[in-house]
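Figure 6 in text form: structure in, sequence out.
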């Protein structure tokens, strides 16, 4: 019995975890092929394990396609979805940060075909990064995670707590791994945390600076550090905080440093000012001869794929409106704005839950239009959708390509079989039928 059982076991040594944008590529999974079940997972964090195991848990899955709240088969759902998009004057195509690159491409073709709006979560999470980059005031000092792991001896997390959001970021890319110039791993590195709240990260940080949001916060600290790095003499005594001075001094003495900036900065009040001030600090460090990079902490596992695709195809990172001459205008062509101004008249949502993540008033306006949803899981959005397609879980039940947070493309494996088509297949069917009638 035993050898036969063994024959049925398949081991994948380098599976890529499709939960967060770290895309850890060292996950070992053993599969009972006969039973189509995952038997064991090694190296993934709890988020990753939960994501892989979600394939075998039926409670949260969408079981059948639905049309107007009633169960239907895929063909009926497909006809209804196509009929909605066919008559739509300007549909919104949104989500896709939890989809593979190939699915993102097909969705983009639908947006082009229908002259609709194509937007992704980046539009809400990191929208202040790009206008600052576009101004070109400061160069974008950036590096692959492997370069940071090899070289960095000073690591800063600013408005970010990877222990909660990206649990293996510290061990794979920043603080703990052995690098070419950090051969003793954590012994050769120092961690600095700058945040408005204390977190677990404080325990492993050499320096922890708590930001007071009421006093100009992060922007003021970044600006003060920049002036200290530049050696300005006229800094008013009132500006001095000993810890800020010590940290600025540490940054200046780094061999190579990385500042990982999180949503605590990007999604906060006056984010634009803060991002600009951190850019200026990184620029000042580089001009003083200290190699430093600024690295935005991306969340969803393939948000970078969506950004790369849009940049390649249109030159813009998110929020593109194919009905206009000027495709990209943050505040006009971006998802929240086109819904609030009632410019779109149907929505095709892929792997996102706007009814949990959008402001209430915006979500309410979404209810006024027909929604087509493609998702493996039930969510508040399923209840408000005219058409719901259950899909395979990308990277667990369907293979795909995803881009790590630093832009490195990686292949996601199909680990187990499932009864549902991939989001790419559903999008291809929708696109095919729409193309016939346009
Ligand atoms: S850190 Fe992210 S990618 Fe890595 S195992 Fe955890 S959830 Fe998966």
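Output sequence:
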């Amino acid at each position: 019995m035993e050898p036969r059982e063994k024959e049925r076991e398949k081991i994948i040594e380098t599976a890529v975890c499709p939960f967060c944008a770290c895309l850890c590529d060292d996950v070992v999974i053993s599969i009972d092929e006969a039973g189509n079940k995952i038997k064991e997972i090694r190296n993934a964090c709890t988020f990753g394990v939960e994501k892989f195991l979600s394939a075998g848990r039926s409670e949260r899955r969408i079981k059948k396609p639905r049309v107007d709240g009633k169960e239907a088969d895929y063909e009926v759902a497909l006809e209804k979805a196509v009929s909605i998009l066919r008559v739509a004057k300007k549909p919104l195509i949104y989500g896709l940060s939890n989809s593979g690159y190939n699915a993102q491409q097909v969705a983009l073709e639908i947006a082009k075909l229908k002259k609709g709006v194509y937007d992704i979560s980046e539009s809400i999470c990191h929208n202040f990064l790009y206008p600052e980059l576009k101004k070109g005031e400061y160069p974008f000092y950036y590096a692959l995670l492997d370069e940071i792991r090899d070289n960095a001896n000073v690591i800063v997390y600013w408005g970010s707590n990877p222990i909660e959001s990206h649990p293996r970021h510290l061990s794979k890319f920043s603080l703990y791994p052995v690098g070419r110039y950090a051969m003793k791993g954590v012994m050769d590195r120092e961690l600095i945390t700058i945040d408005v709240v204390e977190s677990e990260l404080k325990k492993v940080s050499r320096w922890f600076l708590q930001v007071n949001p009421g006093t100009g916060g992060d922007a003021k600290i970044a600006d003060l550090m920049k002036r200290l790095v530049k050696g300005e003499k006229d800094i008013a005594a009132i500006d001095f905080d000993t810890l800020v001075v010590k940290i600025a001094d540490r940054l200046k003495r780094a061999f190579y440093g990385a500042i990982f900036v999180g949503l605590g900065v990007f999604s906060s009040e006056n984010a634009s000012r803060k991002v600009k001030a951190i850019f200026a600090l990184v620029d000042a460090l580089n001009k003083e001869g200290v190699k430093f990079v600024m690295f935005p902490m991306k969340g969803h596992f393939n948000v970078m794929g969506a950004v790369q695709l849009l940049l390649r195809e249109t030159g813009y990172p998110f929020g593109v409106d194919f009905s206009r001459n000027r495709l990209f205008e943050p505040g006009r062509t971006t998802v929240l704005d086109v819904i609030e101004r009632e410019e779109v008249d149907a929505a095709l949502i892929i792997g996102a839950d706007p009814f949990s993540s959008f402001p209430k008033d915006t979500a309410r306006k979404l209810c006024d239009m027909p929604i087509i949803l493609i998702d493996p899981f039930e969510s508040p959005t399923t209840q408000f959708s005219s058409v719901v397609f259950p899909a395979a879980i990308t990277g667990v039940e369907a293979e795909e390509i995803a881009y790590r947070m630093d832009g490195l493309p990686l292949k996601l494996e199909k680990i187990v079989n499932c009864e549902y088509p991939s989001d790419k297949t559903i999008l291809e069917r929708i696109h095919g039928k729409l193309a016939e009638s346009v």
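Caption detail: Residues 17, 19-20, 22-24, 44-45, 47-48, 166-168 surround iron/sulfur cluster (CB under 6 Å).
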